[in-house]
Amino acid sequence: MKHDQIPAERRALLRLALALGAATAVHMIAADPAGTPTRPGGEPPAPAAGPPARVQAGPGSYRLRPMTTGTPPRFRPAPPPVRTRPFEELPGLGSDAMVLSFDDGPDPRYTPDILATLRRYDVRAMFFVCGEMAADNRDLLREMSDDGHVVGNHSWSHPLIPGLPRGAVRDELGSTSEVIEKTLGAPPLWYRAPYGAWNRHSFEIGAALGMEPMAWTVDTLDWTTPGTDTIVRRVEEGAAPGVVVLSHDAGGNRSQSVAALRRYLPALLERGYRPTVPRRT
User: Active-site residue among 104, 154, 248, 249?
Assistant: First the structure.
């Protein structure tokens, strides 16, 4: 998101998002470089409520379609089904694999340091970007892609999705996909709802745009600035095959997140973990 969060406001939004109900883990998938998702079962979450608000989401309406034609085969997976829950973990990646993910950027103050650390250890990660940040920092989007990271959709302005009408959800996701596709030459294949707050509209519109929903297993809560030691401990204690770790590279002062990555990434590698990214076919 473009502006630094006020912790009290974000805590309130997270409490509201948690009240929407936690999604159960969905057992998909495939490892880098390729794989095919399976279709999860499960009941849909309880209907969500939120403040009625319409958000202006930057560029005009993005055409709803699964995928661009003419892209390389690895970027032309089958259109995804409409999910009822996001993926929270990816056990199919392998017994030594886990996923590192970063939200809210790209931010020129912190994202370059995170990219440099990942590059130093030859590790790939997922970056769920906000459209308003991506539009202003396209060079960082290109750097992510050039380094082999997965660039995902995190909405345009980081709103609470269940509080928006369907058209605003389409604008938030569509406008961000448009910026990513125009910058990188291919649309995003993954998206993450701000605050982890999903609803039927977001699942339907995300699938229509060719994206799978990704949540997380381990929340570092780094946005609360709990201290570098605490962030490191949460990642190391939560490490396990298939987990998805949530951190942030924007939305506030992320210097602790940058410092923590420099410590826990080599520690994970020493323990035999292989941070990687999912691929779709």
Answer: 248
